[in-house]
Design brief:
The complex is a heterodimer of chains A (278) and B (477). With 278 residues, chain A is of the alpha/beta class. Chain A has 2 domains: 60 residues; 198 residues, Rossmann fold (3-Layer(aba) Sandwich). In chain A, helix 3 packs across helix 4 and helix 9 crosses helix 10. The longest helix of chain A has 15 residues. Chain A is elongated and about 65 Å long. Chain A starts with a helix and ends with a helix. Chain B is an alpha/beta fold and 477 residues long. Chain B is built from 23 helices and 8 strands. In chain B, strands 3-2-4-1-5-6-7-8 form an 8-stranded mixed sheet, sandwiched between helices. In chain B, helix 2 packs antiparallel against helix 3 and helix 15 runs antiparallel to helix 18. Chain B is flat. The N terminus and C terminus of chain B are likely disordered. The chains are: A alpha/beta (278), B alpha/beta (477). The interface between A and B is large, with 46 and 53 residues. Bound molecules: guanosine-5'-triphosphate (2 copies) and magnesium ion (MG) (2 copies).
Chain lengths: 278, 477
């Protein structure tokens, strides 16, 4: 593994000095892994032999990855239902569009639910994606009830025998208990018609340590099944997602790398871990 | 796993305070704790280390002096706090108006930072001050960014210049330029230009931003920053500074619980002040940025001022005035007063969120209690008081066994619930009397159970409370 190879080459060539460790620590922290995680890694690495340091670091980072399945749920006998959730502006609506494109490439039919009835032009934004990708978007009245839009969409998905129903929800901060409850309600109402198979939490790669609380709060209100880590085309490393995996066991399922519908990749552990230090 | 910055600071300072005299080793020790705390708040590694050098040298230099003061720990705390405020900008800066109208404001930042929402908030804020702003829709990239700005403009009653529908069609530089001409024509004295989100590493879009800038020569370029951003903050801010440049920052999504350490990093590294704070999705969730409040938030003193303002809004002036005059005249605080306080508190929103703004809220013990805080408790207390007769409310002394059991039945509660409420209430009443006697004590309102008063234990001495209302008073303390 080419984990921060430059640093490690230096370490291997001589004995490791305090400033080398400080440099490694800085690289770890700057990836947004968190100070404690970084220190844990350093402590482990310090105990290992010079030529084993990189392997130790790579192995411990890899050991933090979740062991839960990373493939998107798939049911053949009924529509598979996916809810997209997260804090404001992380890329939920765009990721919804990207998932459509991903599923279409696997010849699956998709129906969208515009359950963000709150933000200005959120419905129109999803409709634009819907018409670009040629999928139907179920909408409701502005400022209407998000759960009832989701319910209508679930009913429609079942009628039409659609493969996937994707529900785009409004951004909400995990600290707003009323809005978090609303999300729980969307889920419960959909489940009157169809089981919710995936709840994907969209995490912006630029997010710092607050991402961990976010994940925990969303998990407790809607049982998140996976993460979509967006904006990985920028300079942020997205290390908080690994911290989230470690802390909550929720696996990263997809990586977002741009603003177009094609910019979605299934998670590749090696690439991700490598990228933390480049 | 990640304790918040404030709880770290509090831990560090509590241990420092328990020592009478300080040695230079103590300062190293506290520096190490502050370091981890700042990192957990997403302050950039290099900024943290620089900050700590200053704290260490200032404290060590002043060690002899510090030890002369009655509380050396507080003196160190003051140094930390004043350094933080200094980095955060010293004082809030206002918009600089152009000598010759219109004043042109350009909004830039990463995708999803909150630019378009801010455009609306800023327009409303400036309009309320008697200006005639124009919004310009120069984000032609993001699907329906133009529609979004049009909706927002409509909701605040500010015209939007939007000649292109966007969604990938049209030239944002031309729109910005024509927007400015339109504003000059129609005598708008302020132009706010919304642009597409872009990455620091996207040189092509950075070039476009530069072209927009050069076409309209803005008086203020604002860099909009999401308070939740982590270690990438500095790199991206520097890319924007080099790419388009900016004059000030706006910090958004401060209504969450992110500590916003990135703000500290960016002001330190770029030297630019933070001008505004966005604190929610509603147009009204907007304020000037106050460096001292932010420093407080970081230091775990709680965002007292913001809380006090919210409290002021929730207690309608009648209720507050009545309570205050009552208090001044030496009348007893009754269960009726208590009820109106509870109602006001409910209006202020989630109790745990409110309490979270109190000093000490993020330290271990208090945090646990907050997590366990039952919002239903308020409702329960309210229903008990409502089941009392007016006489019982003003004279709880007459509450004998049979009255208590009637109240319990009426409110669907246990007699023990009624008992504990009466008990807590009489304690609060006693506390009120003591306060009137001048012995202040930052108690929480009686309906809220016994929360540990950590603030008193570890926060430095603060101003005397201004309010005679115990609920408000507790919020202020
Ligand atoms: N560079 C980049 N930009 C992205 C990515 N994903 C989303 N965006 C952009 O981020 C911004 C916000 O995306 P949205 O999909 O509207 O985010 P959202 O989470 O639905 O936002 P709200 O519904 O307002 O909470 C838009 O400008 C998107 O184009 C990504 O992977 N890379
Ligand atoms: N909670 C909260 N949400 C905010 C705040 N400011 C903006 N938002 C939300 O964040 C999301 C993104 O806001 P926008 O104003 O669309 O962000 P933008 O920077 O214009 O996004 P792009 O144009 O896609 O780059 C929306 O859901 C907003 O409602 C804030 O202060 N608090
Ligand atoms: Mg959205
Ligand atoms: Mg925008």
């Amino acid at each position: 593994m080419a984990l921060f190879s430059k640093l490690l080459a230096k370490i291997r060539s001589s004995s490791t000095s305090e400033s080398d460790w400080a440099e490694i620590e800085q690289a770890l922290i700057e990836s947004d892994l968190g100070a404690k995680n970084a220190r844990e890694i350093i402590d482990l690495a310090k105990k290992s032999k010079g030529d084993q340091i990189d392997v130790t670091i790579a192995d411990s980072l890899a050991s933090w990855l979740s062991s839960s399945p990373r493939e998107l749920a798939k049911h053949t006998e009924r529509p598979t239902t996916v809810m997209i959730v997260g804090v404001n502006g992380t890329g939920k609506t765009t990721s919804t569009a990207k998932l459509v494109s991903h599923l279409q490439s696997e010849k699956r039919s998709v129906l969208l639910a515009a359950a963000d009835t709150f933000r200005a032009a959120a419905v129109e934004q999803l409709q634009t994606w819907g018409s670009r990708l040629g999928v139907e978007v179920i909408t409701g009245p502005a400022n209407g009830d998000a759960a009832s839009v989701a319910f209508d969409a679930a009913t429609r998905a079942q009628e039409l025998k659609i493969d996937y129903l994707i529900i785009d929800t409004a951004g909400r901060l995990h600290t707003k208990s009323g809005l978090m409850d609303e999300l729980g309600k969307v889920r419960r109402v959909v489940e009157k018609v169809l089981p919710v198979d995936e709840v994907l939490l969209v995490v912006d790669a630029t997010t710092g340590q607050n991402g961990i609380v976010q994940a925990k709060m969303f998990m407790s209100s809607v049982s998140v099944t996976g993460l979509i880590l967006t904006k990985m085309d920028g300079s942020a490393k997205g290390g908080v997602a690994l911290a989230i995996e470690r802390e909550t066991g929720t696996p990263i399922k997809f990586i977002g790398t741009g603003e177009s519908a094609k910019d979605l990749q299934v998670f590749d552990a090696e690439r991700y871990l490598d990228g933390l230090f480049h | 796993m990640f304790e918040s910055l404030s709880s770290k600071f509090q831990g560090a300072f509590a241990s420092l305070r328990s020592k009478g005299r300080l040695k230079s080793g103590d300062i190293d020790e506290i520096a190490a704790e502050i370091r981890e705390a700042l990192l957990d708040s997403d302050v950039a590694v290099t900024v943290v280390d620089h900050f700590l050098e200053r704290i260490k040298s200032r404290s060590t230099e002043a060690l002899a002096e510090l030890n002369k003061s009655t509380n050396p720990a507080n003196a160190v705390f003051e140094i930390v706090s004043s350094e933080l405020i200094e980095i955060l900008g010293g004082s809030a800066r206002r918009i600089r108006f152009a000598k010759k109208a219109p004043t042109v404001i350009l909004l830039t930042g990463l995708q999803g930072a909150g630019k378009t929402s801010l455009a609306g908030k800023l327009a409303k804020y400036l309009k309320d001050q008697g200006n005639t702003p124009l919004l310009v829709a120069s984000d032609l990239q993001r699907p329906n960014a133009v529609t979004q700005l049009q909706f927002i403009g409509e909701s605040v009653g500010v015209p939007v210049f939007a000649p292109e529908v966007g969604n990938g069609v049209g030239d944002p530089v031309k729109v910005a330029k024509n927007g400015l001409i339109f504003a000059q024509d129609k005598l708008h004295n302020i132009v706010i230009v919304d642009t597409a989100g872009r990455l620091g590493v996207d040189s092509q879009l950075m070039q476009e931003a530069k072209q927009i800038r050069d076409a309209i020569t803005p008086d203020e370029i604002l860099y909009v920053l999401d308070a939740m951003v982590g270690q990438d903050a500095v790199r991206t801010a520097l890319a924007f500074q080099e790419g388009v440049g900016f004059d000030a920052l706006v910090l958004t999504k401060l209504d969450g619980d992110a500590r916003g350490g990135a703000a500290l990093s960016i002001t330190q590294v770029t030297g630019k002040p933070i001008m505004f704070a966005a604190t929610g999705e509603k147009i009204s969730d907007f304020d000037l940025f106050y460096p001292d409040r932010m420093a407080s938030r970081i230091l775990g003193l709680g965002d007292i001022q913001t809380l006090a303002e919210q409290a002021k809004g929730a207690f309608d002036s009648d209720t507050a005035a009545k309570l205050e005059s009552k208090f001044a005249s030496g009348e007893d605080f009754t269960l009726d007063d208590f009820l109106s306080q509870l109602e006001a508190m409910k209006k202020m929103g989630s109790m745990s969120k409110l309490l979270g703004m109190l000093p000490g809220a993020n330290s271990g013990a208090m945090k646990k209690q907050l997590e366990q805080f039952d919002e239903g408790e308020l409702v329960k207390t309210q229903s008990i008081v409502q089941s009392m007769t007016p006489i019982e409310r003003s004279e709880p002394k007459i509450l004998n066994g049979s009255r208590r059991s009637r109240i319990a039945k009426g409110s669907g509660r246990q007699v023990s619930d009624v008992n504990s409420l009466v008990e807590r209430f009489s304690q609060a009443q006693k506390a009120m009397k003591q306060m009137r006697g001048g012995k202040g004590g930052g108690q929480l309102p009686p309906g809220m159970g016994a929360l540990p008063n950590i603030a008193k234990k570890i926060a430095p001495a603060k101003k005397k409370s201004r309010s005679g209302n115990p609920a408000k008073r507790a919020l202020e303390s």
